[in-house]
Design a protein that fits this description.
Blueprint: E1 10-13, H1 17-21, H2 23-29, E2 32-35, H3 49-59, E3 62-63, H4 78-85, E4 96-97, H5 105-113, E5 119-121, E6 132-133
Parallel strand pairs: 1-2, 2-3, 4-5, 5-6
Length: about 140
């Protein structure tokens, strides 16, 4: 974990049980974003909503959305994308992470329309706020 203390933000997608197992170290980092996909919350190998919320309240993590079912959004209709972006009421609309890191301009516009403040990718991006590049560690 020492090598990631010099970055501005650290992000986790899916929120596997290993994130919970390392919650103390994660809480020390600061600037941690958690991007659960709706259908993984509480699924085998992933943490449940109670632990997800504890990571926020007790360890200072922030929440962003990662869709309901982790699709390649470029292959969906506009209406399907809107449904994937329609996060549960407890989920803030501060940030979004594109599944697989993939997006196109149409997806970006729908993410903006849904009210998200910024969006992250692992495959492409720039500093425009809706294609922020993040690297794997």
């Amino acid at each position: 974990m020492d090598q990631i203390r010099s970055v501005d933000e650290v992000t986790f997608d899916g929120i596997y049980t290993s994130v919970w197992d390392h919650r103390e170290e994660i809480g020390e980092i600061g600037g941690v974003w958690l991007f659960p996909a709706g259908d993984t919350i509480g699924a085998d190998g992933f943490i449940g909503l109670d632990k997800l919320m504890a990571l926020v309240s007790d360890y200072g993590c922030r929440l962003g959305w990662h869709t309901w079912s982790h699709p390649d959004m470029r292959t969906l209709s506009d209406e399907q994308i809107r449904r994937e972006l329609d996060a549960p009421d407890w989920m803030p609309r501060d940030a979004f992470a594109y599944p697989y890191g993939d997006f196109d301009q149409r997806v970006v516009e729908l993410v903006k329309e849904a009210g998200y403040g910024k969006a992250y990718s692992t495959t492409q991006g720039n500093a425009d706020g809706y294609s922020l590049y993040r690297a794997y560690l």
